[in-house]
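Changelog-linked ticket: cytidine-5'-triphosphate example.
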Amino acid sequence: ERFFGEKELLQGKKVLVTAGGTVERIDPVRYLTNDSSGKMGFAIAEAARLMGADVTLVVGKASVQTPEGVRTVRVESAQDMLEAVVGRLPEMDIVIKAAAVADYRPAEQAEQKIKKKDAEMTLKLVKNSDILQTIGSLKTKQFIVGFAAETQSIDEHAMDKLKRKNCDLLVANDVTQEGAGFGHDTNVVRIYDRSGLVEALPVMSKREVARHLLLTVADRIRKGD
Ligand code: CTP
Ligand code: CA
């Protein structure tokens, strides 16, 4: 059924993967972030390399080692990640956005360490640009895969994100499910395209999820989606 060996499936393709969590600075020694380990994105980068792709990994804060054999670009904030991704978009064939991007950042970043004063303090946050939505609106030939972390109404939220952000595929995980999400070596995902649910995968290692996802992407690209 598949005409190419897996090692050549993505030969000649330029793939950009984002992974990890972003870091939003409050002052020189403090920041806001999330529990993303980077594992899912790293597994995707590795799987793409094993299929012969030229892989660029844009990575924020991660708690595991970055994979070998992929070009790694380190970023801190969502704004940095946006620049790194948008700047490289024209040359890419496939973009996979597995990073956990902070939705908000502190409205101001203090240049000096903030001193404690009153019994209460308020931290004002402002919304970050949506990187996936931005590339969805700029894309020309690129095949775009988004992610979604959900705790309820997964199908509905996933389809809404896919359409709003103009993705070709969207991978959603129910983070409340056993064996899924942040920090785990396994994941339970549902894959959607513009017409709805494509596949609901069982509990799999993140490496297996990555391979499965890239086989699907390669298939779709070959069929000219
Ligand atoms: N994403 C992004 N830029 C942001 C926020 C999210 O690129 N500022 C991307 C993530 O990398 C992921 C997808 O959007 O691929 C979905 O992230 P998610 O947090 O599930 O969705 P949001 O649109 O942020 O909605 P919400 O958090 O309210 O569910
Ligand atoms: Ca979010």
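Closing comment: Example verified and attached. The first strand starts at residue 14 and ends at 19. The helical segments are 39-50, 78-88, 131-138, 154-164, 206-222.
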